Every structure is written in C-alpha cells, then in structure tokens.
C-alpha cells in the first residue's frame, strides 16, 4: 500500500477533541457484534444439533466455516477499506452482518446453516480490519492509543461475556435462532450513530484493487485450512493432498504477486519488522491453542455437567472479566516492565491454566474451572492487547489497514486451525467409544456423530441402556477434551518462549 493516509478535517476534529472517545465507543460496537456472534454459537450448538441433525463433520463446518472465510478475506477487505474508505466499509459490513444474521437464525438444514455462516464470514471480514485501522488514525498520542486498543480488546472480551449470558437466557426462553437476532439492535446503533461520529479515512492514492490477489488469498487460505481439517479428522488422502497443494500454490503465487504490484493488497515488507512478525505469530499460535478448547467447553458444561445454557454462560464469565481488566491496564504494565515480559508471561499463564484442564473430569468442581478460566482471561487479555499495540505502532499510519488486516487474519486463521485441529482431535477420540451391546445401528451412528446426538439417542432407549450409552459418550468426550487441553498447553508454552525472543527490545511508544 502506497501513499499517505488521508486525514480529513473531520478526522482532525475527532483527533483533537473528546469526540474521539465517542467515535471509539461506536467502533467497539462492531467488535462486540463479532464477539457475541462467535460465543453464542457454542451455546447454541447442542440445540442446532438436535434440530438440524448435522453430522459430526457438518457440525465442525458450522463452527469453523465462518473463520475459514473471514481469514481468507480479511487482507482483501482491509485493502478495500483503504481504497473506498474504512468508515464506508465498516457501515456497509454492519448492515450486511445484520441481514445475514437473520439467515442464520432461520436456517432449516445443516447445508443452509453452513452457507449462512460462510456469508456471515464475508460480512465479518468487512468489519474487523476497519476498527483497528480507524483507531490508529483517530488516536495519535501513543498512550491514548494504547488505552483505546485496550478498550477495543476489553469490548471483545465483554462480548464473550455478554454472548453466553444473553444467549443462555434466550435459549431457555426462545428457539436457538434467536441468539443470532441479538446482532440486529447492535448493528442498528452502529450504523445510525457511526454515520455521524466516525471520521472517514483512506489512502488517497491507493491504486487498483487487484481481483486476482483477492481470489488467490481466499483460495489459498481455505485450501490450506481445509486440508489441515480433513487430515486431522480423516487422515491423509488424495483430496487432502490436492487441497493442500492448491492452497500452498495459491498463497505462494499471492506473495509473489504482492512483491511485484505497485499497489499490493498486502505490503509484504511489513514482515521485515521483527516486532511486527513476532506479535503476529504470537497471536496466531495463541488462539490456535485456545480456540478448539473454547469451542467445546460450552458443550462440556451443558452436555457433560448438565448445566442449563444460562448457567453455562455465567460459568464462563471469569475469562471475560479477567480479559477486560487485563486489557485495560496492559499498555501501562508493558511500559512499566517490557513488551516481551507481559506477552510471554501472559501466554505462559494461559498455557499452565490449560495444563490444569488435563485433569478435567465429569465431576470437576466449579472452583477449579473458574480459576482456570480467570487465568486464561487475564493472560490472553495482556497478550492480545499488547501484541495489537505492537502491530499497529510498528507501521506508519498509511499502512494501518494492512497491519490491522494481518493482525485479524492471524487471529481468525488461528481460530480456524484451532477448531480444525483440536476440534478434530476431540471428535476423533470421542467417536471411538464403545456403545452398549444391543444398541440399534442407527442409534449408534447418531451417538458417534456428536455428543448432542448421543444425548438425543440415549433419550429414546430403555433407561439402563440409555444411561450406559450416555456415560460412555460423556467419558469419551472428556478424554478428547483432556487431550486437546494438553496439546493447547504445549502450544501456548512454546509460544511464550518464542515471544520472549522475538519481542526482545520491543517497546511501546511513550
């Protein structure tokens, strides 16, 4: 990306008055929108399983296709925002996100649900890069920008808290589609208020939007992630190999093309900055280690421990509270000590918390779960907030869109890979449990597809046989969750060590 960001008179006014904080309050609504949508899906999964009856593979696709698509399009949409205006893209994306949420709510088949989630990914990709890029252009003072990024991250965590609680309440009183409709009022506020408060910013000489690069980015990301997902779930085969080769070839072509374009979608020279590259890598690996576990935790709380959706939402609150508090003070702590100590320390704390979950059982008491979730929230809040600040402060304002897109791509790609890898591990361990003798074949197949399917199948069997089937399914699910937690812990602890070296000498602007 070339040129210098256009700073309109409106942008100057917001940058020089308290109105910039009002603009921030609107920007974080977009983050809230995406965070709420991601968390309510986990709570709604058992109900979706019961109503739409997806297979285990379809259930994973419902969970991760959103991240697949959004990861493939973030760079392209970040570049589009630099060209047509980040505010404009944000508002258009908010309208689209709300409209597609309705399609999610009223999906009637697993295939339609997967399509709706994919379209939601397209809309989400227009929202996410715009928010951080606009923060970079509105807040010029480094300390104020750190606080703004902390609030941005805290709002994402608040969304993770609000989503389960509100979603749990809705699931107990309405049908599962209602959890997607809560996006509509947030979207409406964002569009109406944002149109007045948010200043426009864009690159005045952006060059053309290279469509071939857009296609290569999308094909490359989806190809690689799909190959990983299928290999983890079903082993290597011709289809997996073909998908991997296609994805890697597309990404290599994408990188080479960016190096030759005068106005690339992504300036590859950003990665020459060690702090930038280290922060991006830390984000990707951290969320990879967390995502698969988080996706299945709501199912554990509901289908293994028997909590209601609302209780499961409340049980997950400590993680969000910890992340909010840590996010708000992360910039100050990183300046007091150092970037690498805060990031590496936060990641190590998350890794140790995940290691504690390897002792998980059906009878595990909430005190242990609550402490683990609190530590995960605090560690992730410190890490993600500081790395976002490093990524944005490592590049000039005119490249804020590209930097934001890379940051969000790492997050979404890590989410997709985490659900694909760790989720497939949980599914693989789970599907191997032995059903009681005499169980009808169709019931056994349904039970092996998902834990939700086992709960439903058990209810149609004689009491003793149903209890035995459910006990075996729950035990296998917990075994898979323990293994996923152990692998996640190893990933997080290794990432902590890597961050300590990669972020050496890195400082936040004073």
How would you describe the overall organization of this protein?
The protein is an all-alpha fold. It folds into two domains: about 5-210 and about 260-500, MFS general substrate transporter like domains (Growth Hormone, Chain: A), CATH 1.20.1250; about 210-260. Helices cover about 80% and strands about 0% of the residues. It has 19 helices and two strands. It has a two-stranded antiparallel ribbon with strand order 1-2. The model is unreliable at about 1-15 (pLDDT under 50).
Summing up helix and strand content along with how strands pair, one would put the structural category as: mainly alpha
Tell me what portion of residues adopts beta-strand conformation: under 5%
Examine the secondary-structure arrangement and name the CATH architecture of the largest domain. Answer: Up-down Bundle
Count the helices. How many? 19
Give the total of beta strands.
2
Distance between the termini: 27 Å
Low-confidence runs of at least 5 consecutive residues: 1-15
Number of domains: 2
Q: Into which percent range does the helicity of residues fall?
A: over 70%
CATH third-level topology of the largest domain: Growth Hormone, Chain: A
| Rg calculated over all Cα atoms | 22 Å
- What about the largest sheet? 2 strands, antiparallel
Mean pLDDT: 80
**Spatial strand arrangement across the major sheet:** 1-2
SSE topology string: EHHHHHHHHEHHHHHHHHHHH
> How does the overall form come out from the CA principal axes?
globular
CATH superfamily label of the largest domain: MFS general substrate transporter like domains
Level-1 CATH class name of the largest domain:
Mainly Alpha
Domain Major facilitator superfamily (MFS) profile: 23-507
Pfam families: MFS_1
Protein name: MFS transporter
Transmembrane segments: 21-47, 59-77, 89-108, 114-135, 147-169, 175-197, 209-228, 234-255, 276-297, 317-334, 341-360, 366-392, 413-433, 483-503
């Amino acid at each position: 990306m070339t040129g210098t960001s256009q700073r309109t008179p409106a942008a100057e006014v917001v940058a020089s008055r308290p109105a910039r904080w009002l603009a921030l309050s609107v920007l974080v609504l977009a983050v809230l929108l995406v965070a709420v949508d991601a968390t309510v899906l986990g709570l709604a999964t058992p109900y979706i399983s019961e109503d739409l009856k997806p297979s285990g593979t379809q259930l994973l696709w419902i969970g991760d296709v959103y991240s697949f698509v959004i990861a493939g399009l973030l760079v392209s949409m970040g570049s589009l925002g630099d060209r047509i205006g980040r505010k404009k893209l944000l508002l258009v994306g908010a309208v689209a996100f709300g409209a597609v949420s309705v399609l999610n709510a009223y999906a009637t088949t697993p295939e339609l649900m997967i399509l709706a989630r994919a379209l939601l990914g397209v809309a989400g990709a227009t929202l996410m890069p715009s928010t951080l890029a606009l923060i970079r252009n509105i807040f010029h003072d480094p300390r104020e920008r750190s606080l703004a990024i902390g609030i941005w991250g805290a709002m994402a965590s608040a969304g993770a808290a609000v989503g389960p609680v509100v979603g749990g309440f809705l699931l107990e009183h309405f049908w599962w589609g209602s959890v997607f409709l809560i996006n509509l009022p947030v979207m409406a506020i964002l569009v109406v208020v944002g149109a007045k408060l948010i200043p426009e910013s864009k690159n005045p000489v952006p060059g053309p939007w290279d469509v071939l690069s857009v296609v290569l980015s999308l094909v490359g990301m989806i190809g690689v992630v799909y190959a990983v997902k299928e290999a983890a779930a079903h082993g290597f085969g011709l289809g997996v190999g073909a998908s991997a080769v296609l994805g890697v070839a597309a990404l290599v072509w994408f990188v080479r093309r960016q190096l030759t374009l005068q106005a690339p979608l992504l300036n590859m020279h950003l990665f020459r900055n060690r702090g930038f590259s280290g922060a991006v890598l830390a984000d990707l690996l951290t969320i990879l280690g967390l995502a698969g576990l988080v996706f299945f935790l709501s199912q554990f709380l509901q289908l293994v421990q028997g909590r209601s959706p609302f209780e499961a939402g409340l049980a997950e609150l400590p993680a969000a509270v910890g992340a909010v508090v840590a996010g708000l003070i992360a910039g100050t702590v990183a300046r007091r000590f150092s970037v690498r100590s805060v990031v590496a320390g936060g990641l190590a704390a998350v890794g140790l918390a995940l290691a504690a979950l390897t002792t998980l059982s059906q009878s595990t008491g909430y005190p242990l779960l609550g402490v683990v979730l609190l530590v995960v929230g605090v560690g992730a809040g410190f890490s993600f907030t500081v790395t976002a600040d490093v990524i944005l402060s490592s590049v000039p304002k005119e490249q804020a869109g590209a930097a934001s897109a890379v940051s969000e791509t790492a997050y979404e790609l890590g989410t997709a890979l985490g659900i694909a890898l760790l989720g497939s591990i949980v599914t693989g361990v789970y599907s191997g449990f032995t059903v009681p003798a005499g169980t009808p074949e169709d019931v056994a197949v349904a039970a092996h597809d998902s834990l939700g399917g086992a709960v439903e199948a058990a209810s149609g069997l004689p009491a003793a046989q149903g209890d035995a089937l459910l006990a075996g399914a729950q035990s296998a699910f917990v075994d898979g969750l323990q293994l996923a937690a152990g692998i996640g812990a190893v990933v997080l602890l290794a990432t902590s060590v890597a961050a300590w070296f990669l972020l050496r000498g890195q400082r936040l602007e004073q």
